[in-house]
Amino acid sequence: MKLLLLLFSLAAIASAETVEIVADKFFTDEKKQITEFTGNVVASKNSNKLVAKKVVIIFDKNREPLQYTATGDVEVDMTINENIYFGSSETMIYDPIKNQYTFLTNAFFHEKVTNKKVYGDKIFVNQTTGRYEVESDGDEPVKFIFKVEKNSKK
Questions:
Q1: pTM as predicted
Q2: CA-to-CA separations, 123 to 30, 126, 144, in angstroms, rounded
Q3: Distances in Å between the alpha carbon of 151 and those of 55, 114, 145, 146, 154?
Q4: What are the pLDDT digits (tens) for 38-83?
């Protein structure tokens, strides 16, 4: 029965693309429209990969995902608008309706090709608008690291 529920949940998540989630434990509550994966969670879709201690997916009445929340040593490798990124934080929330990622607590986001790096308490990444926002909640400021190319004169 659990395998059937797992396959049904994954089919709803995947829609047209295949999503694979591996974890130590799986739980779903169809009345509350929530699915939880706990323990050594690894979720993969195409070249994107998420690793966390726990992933919770909230669905609407049509079994379409409303929100994904990953917690516990979250790390993600992903492609956004043809750019390759690595992100990490204690919590990551993905809103598929807004197409927005939110990294919370000890957040780090790295654009691999250009080697741009941002650090903060909150990092917001919107795939649709291409907007990035970084905030700090405490004594530490946000940090942005990037390379400046020198123009060579001939």
A1: 0.80
A2: 32, 10, 12
A3: 46, 17, 19, 16, 10
A4: 999 999 988 899 999 999 999 999 988 999 999 999 999 998 888 8
